[in-house]
Amino acid sequence: MDDADPFAVPGPRGASRKPLLGLTVLVVEDSNFAAEALRMLCLRSGARIRRADCLRSARHHLQVYRPAILIVDLGLPDGSGLDLIEESVAARPRIATILGMSGDNFAEDSAIAAGADGFLEKPLTSLATFQKEVLRRLPADLLTDLPLTTEELVVHPDPLAFRDDMAHVADVLNDEGDGRMLDYVAQFLRGVARSAQDQVLAEAAEGLARARAGGAPLASSTARVAGLVQQRLRDHPAI
Questions:
Q1: Is the pTM higher than 0.85?
Q2: Which tens digits make up the pLDDT trace of 92-138?
Q3: 40 touches 155 (CB < 8 A)
Q4: Which residues carry this modification: 4-aspartylphosphate (predicted)?
Q5: Is the backbone of residue 83 left (phi > 0), alpha (psi -120 to 50) or beta?
Q6: Is the domain covering 11-142 a CATH 2.30.130.10 domain?
Q7: What are the boundaries of each domain within the chain?
């Protein structure tokens, strides 16, 4: 993920709004749409950002370097982000700040139990909220005297990132898989839909999750999700 800041403001005035200046953030997030929002928030705050889209990639990153901040989505294609949080908490030297992240607010307790220093609830698009939630969990030796932003800035990820997420779900649904695949689809879509403020898609994903949890027939719920995904791919044509 590119860490050059396209919104940089030259000179001291620009730096004054970047309280994470000089810090590296590793974001572990499989949604392109959510990752794009975090990229914009990190760059606006002065941080360098790297991204992994699965546990395997994240572990490779962490073998190469140690970020100051680790932000881990709890639902990943190859397992639970809780496992990575536990591993990172136990590692020495420890990453300074480890944050769990999910579109499900009830996941906060699980993230904290795994050892995370805090939790970010999706959708996360407010620059002021992002800076406040991250800075309050940073150790004193990493805090700067640069002030938090006073801007009421809300970032808007590129719609093509949303389309990429829909294409990913369509590919997953086309593959043969078991119930765990549908669990992943439901979790993934809930997060993306909430980030994109797509209530219809979020409700369909929630319906699929309920059907899976209750042992109900899945054909209708799966078909509804697949149909909505295809509709959004038609509404967001590739360039």
A1: yes
A2: 999 999 999 998 878 999 999 999 999 999 889 999 999 999 999 99
A3: yes
A4: 73
A5: alpha
A6: no
A7: 11-142, 159-235
